[in-house]
Amino acid sequence: MTLTRRGFIGGALGSAAAAATAEAGTVRHFEGHPGRYGLLHDTTLCVGCRSCEAACKEVNGLPPVAEPLDDPAVFDSVRRTTDTSLTVVNRYLEADGDRAPVYRKLQCMHCNEPCCATVCPCHAFEKTPEGPVLYHPELCMGCRYCVMACPYYALAYEYEDPLTPKVMRCTMCYDRILEGKQPGCAEACPMGAITFGRREDLIRVARERIRKFPDRYVDHIFGEHEFGGTSWLVLSGVPFGQLDLEEGLTTEPLPAIATSYLGVVPLVITIYPGLLLGMYAFSKRREAVSAAEREESVARALAAAEEVTQQKLASAADRAAKDKQKAIDMAVKKALAEAQKGGE
Amino acid sequence: MTDVTMDAASPTIWGRSGLLTPFNVIAGIILAGGAAILGIRFTQGLAATTNLSHTYPWGLWIGFDVMSGVALAAGGFVTSSAVYLFGMKEYKPIVRAALLTGFLGYFLVVLGLLADLGRPWRLPYPFIKSAGPTSPLFEVALCVALYLTVLFIESTPAVFEWLGLKWWRKLVGSMTIALTILGLILSTMHQSTLGAMYMVAPTRLHPLWYSSHIPVHFFVSAVAAGLAMVIVEGMISHRAFHHQVQISQDRFASINFGLAKGAAVTLGVYFAIKMVGLATEDEWQLLATGWGAWFLVELLGFVLLPCLLFTVAYRERRLTLARVAAVITVIGIMLNRFNITFVAFNWNLPAGQSYVPSWMEIWVTVAFITFAVVVFRWIANRMPIMYEHPDWKGVH
């Protein structure tokens, strides 16, 4: 496994420990592998010729573009990437006075910290030191969490394939990069709207263009910092929101947002057993105490009843004894009286 | 009591006319249709059977079978914890049915997942081949796998009593407390982490449903759903298996009022934390939008309303009202999970791209539920679920 921030975080420690490490690791920051590659799409230079689309299909061995390249009708609707079109060009603004129509190319942005990789339960994604995010179909179980998670709607799935469907997305032509070639789209672009190079160089190039032509560009490089930054960078002459690129996005990487809760998990595992056994002990004790109290009060009631009985018995015996004495006294008195009478 | 047991164990319960009862015929048709659709799914792909798209990778099979299924199966851990850990012994007569419902609910979750996964035979990959421990789904998968095992073991006492395996029955009986604690830990973790799965989508899920507290929302709403589902399940099973029920109508009603009270409190807490979410993320102004109206339908109609109905039902001892509230709560949980999975998801994309389940997705979901009902019936007709086995009265 290559040492990416994600790899650094993940390790084999389990999600729980991983999140804890992420928390603890906030004082350190991994800038990403130096010298990694990226691409710059200058939308002010793009004319919507879709040569990149055609080239992408060719280098990836996908069926050729369905709509003819010179057919402007394709721009009447906004398209997205699919399992057979890993990049598409959309027209976001029609020509307006001096300004030419505005086009933007869509594809996987190859995030610095890809959330597709973080949310994959099978670890099927890998951020390479060279920059491209790779997908390993041989590890994928097809849950499509990555497709759901991508904030750029860049991932597609082979729903037509019944048994061996794969996630489909731009690979930044990783194999071509290793061979020392440019990605297919960059090589095919006749307008120089797509520039391939080292990411830090591309940021310098983009800054330079903005500095030189302040009227031509919005002073922002989309992808430099959004959600922790992307390998693909976009320059625009109109507000990015008009190109369906959300403005004002946080610089916090999505993986950090997505896993922030997982730090609670080890606490649940460690606190619950003690807490619950405590509650169990409370309820057991409450039962035991109430049973003991019941027993005691029964015993007390019995004792009280016993005492009353004893008292009653004693008083009865006493009364009986008195009665007897009285009877004896009476008898004696009577006998004496009779004796006296007899004596007279 | 003895003749009840004997009657329950006899196969004549399948109906006076043998196997061809109306219930069996309808269930058979639904199951056969579901099997046929699954046949299409595994020969022609998800595209031929579902309305899933690149933009909506999760639909009904995740939104109902997994997200709602897990929440509605929460009754198992809620009632077993109440009885075994917190000493609320008066609920003991319903624990077995709740645990069995929980087990079948989780079984349904796995079935739904197997239909939905692109390559379902790779379901064990995260544990045996390539682990992705940074994924909330990894934690959910691990917890669900373990909890399904726990629920299975917790359901075996009825099987061992039925088969007369005394040694085994004593063994699982001695594990009750440990299993209940494990079940509560695993449930707390995966019920909340199901919500945490959506934390990755702050831009794609509408801010009224997205929250940094969403794991807590999921957990608390699952407790309410579990309690409501126990009431609904009792309403149906006590009618279907009334000849097996040993406790009096009064006692059963008072158990339901206790559950209603619990559900009222839980829904009240849930409503409160939803309000806290609105306040801390300062989203009041969003309530005035169309999405806000839909959010209020869910929050007022399916959380606050059943909360109040449960309260009235408890105070005035009205069983039917408690059942109405329970049904509303169950529908409300499904509505919430649907909203999060595909209604308020991709909310900022242009209209016309939204996901509506295909009839085949709905049929398969209904078939899975039917399957669970058939299995519940088969088990409850044979084993001591609705009543206590005379040899094991009052034992854990």
Q: How would you portray this structure in words?
A:
The complex is a heterodimer of chains A (344) and B (396). In chain A, 42% of the residues lie in helices and 10% in strands. Chain A has helices spanning 5-10, 14-24, 51-59, 115-119, 145-149, 174-178, 184-188, 199-212, 254-259, 264-343; strands at 37-42, 88-93, 102-106, 125-127, 133-135, 156-157, 167-168, 194-198, 232-235. In chain A, the strands form 4 sheets. A 3-stranded mixed sheet of chain A has the order 8-1-9. A two-stranded antiparallel sheet of chain A has the order 2-3. In chain A, strand 4 (125-127) and strand 5 form a beta hairpin. Residues 1-23 of chain A have low confidence and may be disordered. Chain A is mainly α. Chain A is rod-shaped, with a radius of gyration of 44 Å. In chain B, helix 2 (22-44) crosses helix 15 (359-380). In chain B, 49% of the residues are buried. Chain B is mainly α and 396 residues long. Chains A and B meet through helix 1, helix 2, helix 4, helix 5 and strand 6 of A and helix 2, helix 3, helix 5, helix 8 and helix 10 of B.
SSE inventory with pairings:
The complex is a heterodimer of chains A (344) and B (396).
Chain A: H1 5-10, H2 14-24, E1 37-42, H3 51-59, E2 88-93, E3 102-106, H4 115-119, E4 125-127, E5 133-135, H5 145-149, E6 156-157, E7 167-168, H6 174-178, H7 184-188, E8 194-198, H8 199-212, E9 232-235, H9 254-259, H10 264-343
Parallel strand pairs in A: 1-9
Antiparallel strand pairs in A: 1-8, 2-3, 4-5, 6-7
Chain B: H1 2-9, H2 22-44, H3 46-49, H4 60-72, H5 75-85, H6 92-116, H7 125-128, H8 136-163, H9 166-174, H10 176-196, H11 214-240, H12 249-280, H13 290-316, H14 319-343, H15 359-380
Helix pairs in contact in B: 2-15, 4-6, 4-14, 4-15, 5-6, 5-10, 5-11, 6-8, 6-15, 8-9, 8-10, 10-11, 11-12, 11-14, 12-13, 12-14, 13-14
